Amino acid sequence: MKSARMFAALVILGTALATIPLAAQWVNYPTADLPRKADGKVDMSAATPRLADGKPDFSGVWTSDEVDPRRPGEPPNPKDATTSRRMINLGVELQGGLPYQPWLAALVKERTANHAIGDPHIRCFPDNFLRAYGTPHLLKFVHSPKILLMLNEWNAGFRQIFTDARPLPFDPNPSWQGYSTAKWNGDTLVVDTNGVRDDTWVDWNGSVITESAKVREEIRRPDLGHIEIRVTVDDPKAYTKPWTVTIKERLIVDTELIEEICLEGEKDLPHLQ
Residue 60 belongs to what H/E stretch? Predict the structure, then answer.
């Protein structure tokens, strides 16, 4: 029970600190060119925006549209980043959990027991894109017909998804975000990624993807205010079989990214040794 309380306290402390910068600049600056109701609120159920080529436009500032463990049962603040339950367990809705290989099952058990003391996020390293979808840091998508940029206010990070028909690299130099190319299937953008680093954490439990991972995301925007991302991970080094989860994001309006550099003023790392 003591361990559970300590872990919960760490979650609350980390997420509370993460949202402090939202009280700063441009949080009340109105987002332009959005359909609004008579009361001035954005019509989140309005039609999906389109690029010049007619494909869905994923541009916008986004946060998780999942259950927020900080405020169970409360409606989300339209200007507030949400901490998804996926931040702790990416496969939270999978029956039986993520299908770990035995070595990874043992490692996740160890990392959970030691309160994720080796977590790269806690130690101010970048977040992998799968993890970024569930953390309490806003993501900004900038979309054009040839590229989708995902900007993360955490450590001023970025990810590039190329839609210019280039192939994935054959022997990529492993990186935090890997290498991503995409093609359209109707109104769904199908993104394939390879080349991530070994032991790339995707949740607080310490689940990982490895250099052998192939990740497919099927991204769709059913209306103005929501994005759905169907993720399939095929990583035989870490998992006994491929697995799929669906991640939901909601649009954040009348605000902007706030640069958050983890090591700036950081005082906790010396105490984690």
Answer: strand 60-64
d(CA 97, CA 211): 22
Which residue carries 């949400």 as its tokens? 82
Paired tokens of 174 = 């492993």
Please report, in angstroms and rounded to a whole number, the separation of the first and last CA atoms in the chain.
24
CB atoms within 10 A of CB 191: 21
Residue labelled with tokens 């901490």:
83
Strands 226-234 and 243-252: antiparallel
The secondary element (H helix, E strand) that includes residue 143 is: strand 139-144
Give the tens place of pLDDT for each residue, 224-239.
999 999 999 999 999 9
20-37 residue pLDDT tens: 444 456 778 889 999 999
User: What does the domain layout of the chain look like in residue ranges?
Assistant: 2-32+50-260
At 20, list the tokens.
């402090």
